[in-house]
């Protein structure tokens, strides 16, 4: 028997035609999503997860015709004050929301507490308690909402001595 550099050769075993190697195919997003869906379903995942996996690469998960076009704006508020004063308290922040945010967005909002990290103008990395405020509003109200959101950002910076309030906008569809 001759020696092969990678080790001894094995005798060829006939394969079932279904197991024969197939030519490589281009994997499109839909094929990848379909494969992910099949794996989730095979694993017994609920249908909602399968739908999410199938639509992850093609945009929001929606039933046809469900929801209206909206904009989701997230504002990120730090609480440490650069002048060394005590950090913005929960009571102060919620009073700010009640007075400055709710009148412009009475239909609803969400506030989450978190821990944030921010590099200030001097290059110092600050870690601090933070708040994330989420607002949803119809695309048709975008111009008026944008003005109110910018006022909120300016008012918070002034009221609590902040260098910035981050803003993240995403287009989405919403159904209440």
From TrEMBL:
Taxonomic lineage from the root: Bacteria, Bacillati, Actinomycetota, Actinomycetes, Kitasatosporales
Start-end of Low complexity biased regions: 1-22
The keyword Chloroplast is annotated on this UniProt entry: no
The entry's keywords: Signal
A Pfam match: DUF3574
Region forming the signal peptide: 1-50
Protein name: DUF3574 domain-containing protein
Start and end residues of each stretch annotated as Disordered: 1-25
Keyword Signal: yes
């Amino acid at each position: 028997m001759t020696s092969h550099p990678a080790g001894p050769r094995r005798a060829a075993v006939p394969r079932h035609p279904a197991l024969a190697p197939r030519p490589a195919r281009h994997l499109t997003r839909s094929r990848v999503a379909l494969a992910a869906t099949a794996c989730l379903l095979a694993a017994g995942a609920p249908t909602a997860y399968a739908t999410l996996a199938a639509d992850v690469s093609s945009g929001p998960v929606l039933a046809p015709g469900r929801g209206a076009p909206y904009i989701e704006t997230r504002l990120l508020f730090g609480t440490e004050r650069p002048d060394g004063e005590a950090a913005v308290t929960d009571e102060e922040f919620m009073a700010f929301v009640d007075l400055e945010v709710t009148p412009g967005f009475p239909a609803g909002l969400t506030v989450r507490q978190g821990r944030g990290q921010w590099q200030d103008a001097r290059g110092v990395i600050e870690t601090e308690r933070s708040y994330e405020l989420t607002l949803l509003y119809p695309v048709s109200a975008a111009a008026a909402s944008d003005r109110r959101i910018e006022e909120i950002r300016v008012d918070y910076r002034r009221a609590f001595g902040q260098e910035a309030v981050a803003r993240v906008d995403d287009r989405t569809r919403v159904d209440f």
